Amino acid sequence: MRWAKGNLHTHSTRSDGDIAPEHVSEWYAAHGYDFLCLSDHDHLTVLEAPASVQKKWPLLIRGQEVTSRSVNVHVNGYGLGKEVEALEGHDDVLQTLQTNIDRIHAAGGLASVNHPNFRWAVSENDLKRASGYTFMEVYNGHSQANNSGGGGRAGTVEVWDRLLSEGRRVWGIAVDDAHHFTGEFSSERSNPGRGWVQVRAPKLTEAAVLEAMEKGDFYSSTGVKLPELRVSKDEIVLEIDPEADARYTTVFTCQNGNEVSSADGLTARYKPSRLDRYVRATVLSSRGTRAWTQPLFLSE
Ligand SMILES: [Zn+2]
Ligand SMILES: [Zn+2]
């Protein structure tokens, strides 16, 4: 099974992106993406085109960013059968978050909690109390995502580990949240190409990609490629496809984000202990990029 590369969060002129959805699709096709979700704010962007045009685009996953502006709670829905109306006008973050998740389910979609630290809107406690979401963004390429946390607020990966440590099954995704395809590309702007997922789907259809993702059969990346990733209760093994002379360290972590093993070089392996509640790997590149594998739960 080959890896399929996809970005699950991007905008077009159907909301506040700067180019038309057809051109967004062309950008991703030209940069080697196999699938894409045009997750416009409060708009289910579905492109109609003849097959001859569609085959020039990545596979398009039907999705939407359900956006409650009153509390800055944004939830992506993937595989939606219809447009979802965001709960608006409430000042209760948890109620808004849960309602949007439930509405995404009612429309046949999988829910992902977006950029929790954007305007510091969604706290660790909100994420612990909410239910029914399959994914959370551990990396979002928008310039105001505050992925790293700071000033007393946990980073997104740290929050993810705290959820996993409570036995929550939630997968961590990396996304672009791209808005700016024209003009200068800089860290101040929300440009494409920064965060993506690599999914092990048996075929390139929306159903197959989302089914593999729902099972956690994927990894998230900001630049590190893993041609090989085998995860079982006996052993986790991964291989890194190096970028020129970059160097790599793989860190295996278990509950509370505690490090249980690390390895330098282009391969890493770890034999999980029965005492670990879960194990996951983070690959760190000397370029500053990363890959995150999904947790293996050992207590099941
Ligand atoms: Zn958003
Ligand atoms: Zn967005």
List the defining traits of the structure above.
300 residues, alpha+beta, TIM Barrel, Immunoglobulin-like, 10-stranded mixed beta sheet, 5-stranded mixed beta sheet, 18 strands, 18% helix, globular, binds zinc ion
Strand and helix layout:
Elements: E1 3-7, H1 21-30, E2 35-37, H2 51-54, E3 59-61, E4 63-68, E5 73-78, H3 93-106, E6 110-113, H4 124-129, E7 135-140, H5 156-165, E8 171-175, E9 196-200, H6 206-214, E10 218-221, E11 225-231, E12 236-241, E13 248-253, E14 259-264, E15 267-270, E16 278-285, E17 290-293, E18 296-297
Parallel strand pairs: 1-2, 2-3, 6-7, 7-8
Antiparallel strand pairs: 1-9, 4-5, 5-6, 9-10, 10-17, 11-12, 12-15, 13-14, 13-16, 16-17, 16-18
Bound molecules: zinc ion (2 copies).
One zinc ion (ZN) is lined by residues 65, 74, 114-115.
In brief:
This protein has helices spanning 21-30, 51-54, 93-106, 124-129, 156-165, 206-214, and strands spanning 3-7, 35-37, 59-61, 63-68, 73-78, 110-113, 135-140, 171-175, 196-200, 218-221, 225-231, 236-241, 248-253, 259-264, 267-270, 278-285, 290-293, 296-297. It is α+β, with helices and mostly antiparallel strands and 300 residues long.
Give a structural overview:
The protein has 300 residues and is an alpha+beta fold. The protein folds into two domains: 3-222, TIM Barrel; 223-300, Immunoglobulins (Immunoglobulin-like, Sandwich), CATH 2.60.40. The protein has six helices and 18 strands. The chain has helices at 21-30, 51-54, 93-106, 124-129, 156-165, 206-214, and strands at 3-7, 35-37, 59-61, 63-68, 73-78, 110-113, 135-140, 171-175, 196-200, 218-221, 225-231, 236-241, 248-253, 259-264, 267-270, 278-285, 290-293, 296-297. Strands 1, 2, 3, 9, 10, 13, 14, 16, 17 and 18 form a ten-stranded mixed sheet that branches. Strands 4-5-6-7-8 form a five-stranded mixed sheet. It is globular and about 45 Å long. The model has no long low-confidence stretch (mean pLDDT 97). Bound molecules: zinc ion (2 copies).
